[in-house]
Amino acid sequence: MKCSRSVIGVDTAKRVFQLYGVDMETGEIMSVKLTRATFLEHFANRASCLVAMEACGGAQHWARRLRELGHEVRLLPARQVRPFVTGNKSDVHDARAIWTAAQQPNVRTVAIKSEGQQAILALHRMRRQLVKFRTAQINGLRDLLAEYGEVMLRGRAGLRRGLPAAFERIADRLPAMVIDTLRDQWARVIRLDEEIGEIARRLTLWHRDNAASRRIAEIPGVGVLSATAVVAAMG
Q1: Distance CA 40, CA 19 (A)
Q2: Owning domain of residue 196
Q3: φ and ψ of 196, to 5 deg
Q4: Segment 18-40 mean pLDDT
Q5: Which CATH number characterizes residue 94's domain?
């Protein structure tokens, strides 16, 4: 990519951001550390430039804010930046690698999403986490019961049908506190079911009000979850 404007590579962090760039006229290297509080102020006071960042946590937020200030922003996947990291691991070397990667021909970038898009993606992310937690709880409960000869059917439905009888069969062989704890773990699975269902309900409400999502859902085999995820990811 050939850029007529100055390019700034930014390595973001929790408290301090590292900037790296080269003055197009003098060739002078610019290496600056900024706090989160002064980051936007710095760019508000400089001419429009191309700002490159790695597409990591928080990058979407800063990209939107920098665009509001009139700068062009490119978010680079980590794999695009990694080949240009030289020397020991440091903020300066990372910022320089981002600066270098941003100027490569045919560099691939990550789309900058609106806050609305990110909100729907956040729902999908939380739902995936809950599904993962639920699967872990179910597998753990299934393994514990197998230790006492109780082999449950596959799937949540099979587990739901078989648990009451299984608890009765092992109640006389195990301390009550163990049975109570097993029941608590199953109750946790039920709560996760409810939370996952509530997120799905909220996504469905959004889907009904979004024309693009409804159109995608008309494709055979595409449901509400897939349609909302596609629209949120692609816009």
Answers
A1: 12
A2: 115-234
A3: -65, -40
A4: 91
A5: 3.30.420.40
Does residue 97 carry a pLDDT above 50? yes
Buried b (16+ CB within 10 A) or exposed e, 115-134: eebbebbebbeebeebeeeb
Confidence band, pLDDT 50/70/90 cuts, at residue 2: very low
Residue with tokens 């959004």: 206
pLDDT score recorded for residue 1: 45
Query: Is the domain of 55 the same as that of 159?
Result: no
Q: Which segments of 69-208 does DSSP mark as H helices, in order? A: 78-81, 91-102, 115-146, 155-171, 176-208
Residue 107: inside a domain, yes or no?
A: no
Q: How many CB atoms lie within 10 A of CB 79?
A: 9
Q: What 8-state DSSP symbol labels residue 70?
A: T
150-170 pLDDT tens trace: 888 787 888 888 898 999 899
Question: How large is the average pLDDT for residues 64-69?
Answer: 96
Domain assignment present for residue 159? The answer is: yes
- For the chain, state the CA radius of gyration: 26
State the pLDDT at residue 4.
54
Q: Tell me how many domains the chain contains.
A: 2
- Long-range (24+ apart) CB contacts under 8 A made by 56-62 are 56/12, 58/12, 59/12, 60/112, 60/113, 60/118, 62/10, 62/12
